[in-house]
Design brief:
about 25% helix, Rossmann fold, about 300 residues, 9-stranded mixed β-sheet
Length: about 300
């Protein structure tokens, strides 16, 4: 069975990012930008290889879109156990329309004669979680998102476990072929040795042009556009300042309490002051008024 895994590397979000001067993308503050595969894409790669190993046959093909910056991610896929890797030559952008990506993926999938398709549920670029379901719609096959486990039941059926909110799981059956958008909460991807990475770096990555897929740039018109990108507004820090009309004792009490005050209109009350006996009497009186202590009650 031919298994395709679509991956994409983008600017590492763990490195300090800021909006580009034109406000239509992100740039890193480091001199040499760091590009990495998103966690969901790594999970999709791991799941694709695991399924191939479980079947005992078949082939996994990794496909990405972009410039030569993406070759390193494909090298990692080859080191992990992928048999083939292809790169579709396109411009690397800080924002790509999900429909455009899905349209290119569709043509690549048809060219490779797919049996099962894996991709990350969310990608660092554009991180919209839409490309997988659009791809499935274009191919006319089912799609399952937020996948955390896949099992092959028979030749035409999958059992898929997907993540829901608050840690819940949903188990469903899905016919093959299908598009599975994998969540990063799968078992930790296995270690890839340095030797395997060095060997994969020496392998040539075949490159496809859009024309090789039967696509024209005019067919990839974006359905959505990024209007502007700016950092979030800083949250104002709340400062508690005592009222000037308060006495020195009240100001100190307010500061020691962290600014917590009691409003009599909202059911609050003053602090009980006096000798220990007087304080105890006031507390007992308060508890009786609230019905928390019944007079004459026996232990």
């Amino acid at each position: 069975m031919e298994i395709i895994v679509f991956i994409k590397s983008g600017l590492d979000v763990n490195v300090s990012l800021k909006p580009a001067p034109e406000g239509r993308g992100l740039i890193q503050e480091e001199r040499d930008p760091v590009w990495r595969m998103a966690p969901d894409d790594r999970a999709a790669l791991e799941e694709a290889v695991r399924i191939r190993e479980a079947l005992g046959s078949g082939r996994v093909t990794a496909v990405t879109t972009g410039s030569r910056k993406q070759d390193r991610a494909l090298g990692y896929c080859l080191a992990r156990g992928v048999e083939r890797a292809f790169r579709i030559e396109m411009e690397d952008s800080a924002y790509q329309d999900a429909f455009t990506v899905a349209r290119v993926w569709e043509k690549a999938a048809r060219k490779l004669d797919y049996g099962l398709i894996f991709c990350g549920n969310r990608n660092w670029n554009p991180n919209s979680a839409q490309s997988a379901v659009i791809l499935a719609e274009l191919l006319g096959i089912p799609a399952v998102t937020r996948v955390v486990r896949t099992e092959i039941r028979d030749q035409d059926l999958l059992q898929v476990q997907r993540r829901l909110e608050k840690g819940d799981r949903e188990i469903l059956e899905c016919p093959r072929p299908a598009v599975l958008a994998v969540d990063h909460l799968i078992p930790e991807p296995r270690y890839v040795s340095v030797n395997a990475l060095m060997i994969s770096d020496r392998r040539a990555i075949p490159v496809w042009e859009l024309a090789d897929l039967g696509l024209k740039p005019s067919e990839l018109e974006a359905r959505t556009r990024l209007q502007a990108l700016e950092p979030p507004r800083p949250r104002p820090k709340k400062i508690q300042a005592p009222d000037s009309s308060m006495s020195a004792d009240q100001k100190i009490s307010l500061l020691l309490s962290g600014g917590i005050t009691q409003d009599k209109k909202k059911g609050g009350s003053d602090f009980v002051k006096g000798k220990p006996e007087q304080v105890a009497d006031e507390i007992i009186k308060f508890l009786k008024e609230k019905g928390l202590i019944v007079t004459g009650a026996k232990n």
